[in-house]
Amino acid sequence: MSISFPTRLVWRGDERYEQTRRETLWHAGLPNRFPAVIVQAIDVNDVVAAIHLARDRGLQLSVRSGGHSWAGTFLRDNVVLLDISRLRDFSIDREAMTGSAQPGLKGSELDKILMAQGLWFPTGHCTNVCLGGYLLQGGFGWNGREYGPACMSVIGVELVTAEGEVCYADEKQNADLFWAARGAGPGFFAVVTRFHIKVYPRSLVTMNNTYVYPAEVFEELYRWAHEIGRATPAEIHMMLLRDDSASTAGPITILSATAFAGGEEEARATLSLFEACPARKRAVVAEVNRPTTTVELTALGTDRHFDATKRYVADNIWTHATFDDLLPGLQQIVGSFPPAPTFMEWMNWGYDHEPPRQANMAYSLEDDFHFSLYTAWDNPADDAKFVGWTTERLRQLEPLSTGTQLADENLINRPVRFVSDENLRRLDALRTRYDPQGIFVSWLGRP
Ligand SMILES: Cc1cc2nc3c(=O)[nH]c(=O)nc-3n(C[C@H](O)[C@H](O)[C@H](O)COP(=O)(O)OP(=O)(O)OC[C@H]3O[C@@H](n4cnc5c(N)ncnc54)[C@H](O)[C@@H]3O)c2cc1C
């Protein structure tokens, strides 16, 4: 089997190679890792052909959907880099409340399609993240506390295995592969060519409160966010963000809380929690009870934090440590914070759900709070400085953490737990079974 369109093979040495490699990663910090060839697949036959190409040449294979891995985990030396961003087909079955989408479709595109039909799926907070990487690693989306990580709403996957075989996996068929596809993230050992998903009725009202607090309120605000912790209503999506690019008056913290509700009254009542924040009077800006949509929140809100002209490193922890234990580490971060658009995010994630929502899947690690750093800079000469700052700051919090989220992983610099120990053992065993020759690259930072 051969690639359907040979010009979509870009070998190292080809004059288009460096530009093509550059375009695989969304930000400017392109790692010095050089695939042997980049395959720009346009259909499943190309995916199968790329796997045979890797096998015939004795090369490993890495996969790219939307290129929004912070670490550029698909960029590896001397591999076949399979770019499946052109696989973008989707379908919705309103009767069955299901859908299917290929990995190159952006979450924001799916959100718009569903919004037009009054339907919902927990898509992520950035316009350009594609479903491929997002769904494999978990997927922390809008209203994700209520729906769980988005991979919980995946009901089947179409795959191409390391043998080049096209197959389907769900709870009943190839159940091991389905289990792994929900949580293995960048360590998955097959190519997903289509996700089958559940879709839901969309909440009638999406309402947002946004507050801007000056830097000196930092401790009081974070302490309060920690205090409300698991008691934050499940249908609230709440983030604290430090992003100094949003201010000309020095460091700030933005509190953004979005309620997904059945009606305006209910949304207002849920959001009243944030009006009761003890620091409320010190907010320098307050937008309260603003009707909105996730399409708007993504395009006008969260996208603003991401500047593709910068170099980035991200890292994160899950934690349920006490606020007093976390405080020294947080203070050190705030006291040495790099210039904008570096930002940090605190998310109240855990809540007392009943019954427990964990499904039978590789994804297995989450906690009450998620805390992450996204450090941005311009000059390649500063790489070591900013990667070092980010990694060290989170290493300091490591003893207080239960692990890391694969969405913002920094495993190459800080290899820590990202699924339960039991699930990691099962993932390793499944990799040996389904990919005995090690065709697929593994997580960066793990052999
Ligand atoms: C600006 C920005 C905002 C983000 N916001 C969120 C957010 O709100 N919520 C959240 O959960 N995450 C978020 N992320 C993290 C993001 O979900 C992950 O980085 C995800 O992997 C990106 O998906 P992608 O397809 O664009 O990435 P890619 O970089 O293309 O993929 C990452 C890795 O996943 C694997 N992979 C991807 N597609 C396939 C496939 N079809 N088959 C097999 N393996 C595959 C490969 O190992 C690949 O190296 C954000 C990232 C960025 C940069």
UniProtKB/TrEMBL annotation:
Q: Which cofactor does it need?
A: FAD
Which UniProt keywords are listed?
FAD, Flavoprotein, Oxidoreductase
Q: Which PROSITE patterns match?
A: FAD_PCMH (PS51387), OX2_COVAL_FAD (PS00862)
GO MF terms held by the record: FAD binding; oxidoreductase activity
Q: Which domain of life is it from?
A: Bacteria
Matching InterPro entries: FAD-bd_PCMH, FAD-bd_PCMH-like_sf, FAD-bd_PCMH_sub1, FAD-bd_PCMH_sub2, FAD-linked_Oxidoreductase, Oxid_FAD_bind_N, Oxy_OxRdtase_FAD_BS
What family, per the record?
A: Belongs to the oxygen-dependent FAD-linked oxidoreductase family.
* Pfam families assigned to the protein according to its UniProt record, in alphabetical order: FAD_binding_4 (PF01565)
Report what the protein is called. FAD-binding PCMH-type domain-containing protein
**Where do the FAD-binding PCMH-type domain residues begin and end?**
31-202
Q: What Gene3D superfamilies does this protein map onto?
A: 3.30.465.10, 3.40.462.20, Uridine Diphospho-n-acetylenolpyruvylglucosamine Reductase, domain 2
